[in-house]
Automatic annotation (TrEMBL):
Residues 8-172 form the N-acetyltransferase domain. It comes from the Bacteria. Keywords: Transferase. InterPro entries: Acyl_CoA_acyltransferase, GNAT_dom. Coiled coil: none annotated. This is Acetyltransferase. GO terms for molecular function: acyltransferase activity, transferring groups other than amino-acyl groups. The keyword NAD does not apply. The keyword Transferase applies.
Length: 172
């Protein structure tokens, strides 16, 4: 398993990744819909975000990665934001956000993906990363804690008005 930057060669794998979300996790599938509507533009957008160019208002430079196997199956997607200099990111989203495809949940891939992403965060200069999960998302909280996450607080979001568990993780 490796963490790779999104690439055009994964178009069919991404379509399967999206279909898994569409069938089993509709709420999060919208985040990936653009990738099936126009894969080339989607990949270019992710590459631009990683370079900090053509950013949508209130977005920050953000590197995107996919956890893939030797057969080019995409198990998950993870985003590493280079800073959290907006109110939303500082309170509700943090430096790192991730999704494991529904078919691969509960098998340790989230823990592995976050571990690998922390090395990417360190490489861009982060000493520690804020990672946020819904307070009632036990699986995500276990992933964060398995990677050394220390609970800072539980807050109520403004954009996502539900209890959010905020964790800090050392990137080294």
């Amino acid at each position: 398993m490796q963490l790779i930057e999104p690439s055009l060669e994964f178009e069919s794998s991404f379509a399967q990744f999206y279909e898994d979300f569409a069938a089993n996790d509709e709420i999060n599938s919208d985040y990936y819909l653009e990738g099936v509507l126009n894969f080339n533009a989607y990949i270019q957008c992710l590459k631009d975000e990683a370079k900090g160019i053509n950013l949508v208002e209130d977005y920050v430079q953000c590197s995107h990665f996919w956890l893939v196997d030797a057969n080019k199956n995409i198990y998950g997607a993870i985003r590493v934001r280079h800073n959290i200099d907006t109110e939303l990111l500082a309170l509700e989203a943090g430096h790192i956000g991730y999704d494991i495809a529904p078919a691969y949940r509960g098998k340790g891939y989230g823990t592995l993906m976050l571990k690998k992403a922390l090395l990417k965060a360190q490489a861009i200069g982060l000493a520690k990363a804020l990672v946020v999960a819904d307070e009632d998302n036990t699986a995500s909280r276990k992933v964060i804690e398995a990677n050394g996450g220390q609970l800072e607080s539980v807050v109520f979001g403004k954009v996502y008005p539900n209890p959010l568990a905020r964790y800090w993780i050392e990137c080294d």
